[in-house]
């Protein structure tokens, strides 16, 4: 494979497809505004504190759609996000997991700053990261080392008492990120794609 083709594939991929879930493949998304994914710029993002877990869930719950495989599920997620980012994401049928988390971060007191080639400005003036891979690197820069880096989540039951106890979560909420999917872990909520990842970085959020 030539260098130009390899670079094109690197730039063009937003999320790597996950393993089959109930017979459906987690679909790989396309471009991010046709822009270069500026991973290097994320190293310079200034550190900031983590948002309150309850506040994050308040804004994450209305936009976190369980079905990212069907066209209807994707469109519903992007309609909830809204604005120019939501319209373009729906048109391009990008995977919405990073945008869903961006939506919540922006409103829970942890807004995403401008990062050229990595964060995308919505028509409401807020910034969104549209790639799971970039979101993982952004969180590492913004929040520092994960509480549980590269944690083995394959085959887990995200809402089970045993899994939550193993994480030491209690009544708190955690954010997880891999290069192919990002989301939230909490009591009473089960991300359907988390068990199909091998590992994920996990940050536990404070609760006021």
How would you describe the overall organization of this protein?
This protein is of the alpha+beta class. Helices cover 33% and strands 11% of the residues. Strands 3-6-4-5 form a 4-stranded antiparallel beta sheet, with helices on one face. A two-stranded antiparallel ribbon has the order 1-2. The longest helix has 12 residues, at 132-143. The radius of gyration is 16 Å and the shape is globular.
Features:
disordered N terminus; two-stranded antiparallel ribbon; alpha+beta; endopeptidase fold (from Nostoc punctiforme); 33% helix; 208 residues
> In terms of structural class, how would the helical and strand content be classed?
alpha+beta
Mean model confidence by pLDDT: 81
Q: Which fold does the CATH topology refer to? A: endopeptidase fold (from Nostoc punctiforme)
Unreliable segments (pLDDT under 50, ≥5 consecutive)? 3-36
